[in-house]
Amino acid sequence: MCISRDKWHKRRATGGRMAVLRKKRKYELGRPPAHTKLGAKRIHTVRTMGGNKKYRALRQDHGNFSWGSEAITRKTRVIDVVYNPSNNEFVRTKTLVKSSIIQIDSTPFRQWYEAHYATPLGRKKGVKLSEEDEAVLNKVRSKKTQKKYDERKKQAKVEQALEEQFATGRVLAKISSRPGQCGRVDGYILEGKELEFYSRKLKSKKAK
Amino acid sequence: MATADHQTERAFQKQPTVFLNKKSILQGKSKKNLRYVRNVGLGFKTPREAIDGTYIDKKCPFTGNVSIRGRILTGRVLKTKMMRTIVIRREYLHYVRKYCRFEKRHKNLSVHLSPCFRDVEIGDIVTVGECRPLSKTVKYNVLKVTKTSGSKKGFAKV
């Protein structure tokens, strides 16, 4: 373990050098970064200080993502890394780190939405729905439950930018967990101002 | 009023405790700006600019994630060249016993300055409170700025 997180190798605030008083200690240790890539799950566990564990994800492809405005969370596949505010290298090598912007598979969210609100989401106009989709969307219901669904439809509007993403089957999300520490890639779907901000960044990158 | 001007970094700046995407906001019936503001305690008033403003600063004592505890000191502003942090100068007298007299000594202190304090000039008196280490040399945060007397009549350098 040659990486150490000590302070005594740095200069003082006045600029003076600090005399070396001791060797490196184990509690000052640092480990090499995980650089979690997109791929079939591979997680190594690390024994840390005090006998605790850290789960170093070396490759991951699934994660638990939440849709904030609807307050639901579903496990989905991660498709692609699209933007990273700290390092463009991470985008090129498809590295998953906290705060990366990624594309996730939108089907679990679409299925929940259609079952909950009984309105189609991200469907192409004019395409006939398959039998099972028909069954979900236009189920024959008793008067009381139909009323419940009609009430829900009032709140069912999804913002335009997000609906377009559902049409392509890939939704933009941001990773909010640390894969190299907990072994999981979890996050939330981008909406509202954040979505607008990152879409603009992506567009300007593409335009270059 | 420029509301999007504070997004100057490559990552989206936001307050982590504020959820921006509630359905009621997304669907357009927008309230006033959601903002997390806290009262730092110890009798310090949170400035109007902190409540009304749109800046994002995680090290601000009023809108960020630092708590003020421990010592409260005052000093005179010396330099304002760093981004969101200033250098203050604290003067004190040291007694020399052999000669029964005092000598002047001073210490400089790097202190975080929240964007809610605008127009801080050198020479202003500033009250700072101790917080957790924000960087290698910054462990204090500006809580109150009192302008030096006489600065109101002077003309600003154009």
Automatic annotation (TrEMBL), chain A:
Pfam families attached to this UniProt entry: Ribosomal_S8e
Molecular function in Gene Ontology: structural constituent of ribosome
Family annotation (CDD domains): Ribosomal_S8e_like (cd11380)
Gene Ontology process terms (BP): translation
Family: Belongs to the eukaryotic ribosomal protein eS8 family.
Source organism per UniProt: Candidula unifasciata
Protein name, as recorded: 40S ribosomal protein S8
One GO CC term, this protein: ribosome
Keywords recorded for this protein, A-Z: Ribonucleoprotein, Ribosomal protein
Source organism, top-level taxon: Eukaryota
Automatic annotation (TrEMBL), chain B:
Cellular compartments per GO CC: cytosolic small ribosomal subunit
Keywords: Ribonucleoprotein, Ribosomal protein, RNA-binding
GO BP field: translation
Assigned protein family: Belongs to the universal ribosomal protein uS17 family.
Superkingdom, natural source: Eukaryota
Keyword RNA-binding attached: yes
Transmembrane segments: none
GO molecular function: RNA binding; structural constituent of ribosome
Source species: Candidula unifasciata
Annotated protein name in UniProt: Small ribosomal subunit protein uS17
Small ribosomal subunit protein uS17 N-terminal domain location: 7-73
Pfam families (UniProt xref): Ribosomal_S17 (PF00366), Ribosomal_S17_N (PF16205)
KW Hydrolase (keyword) present: no
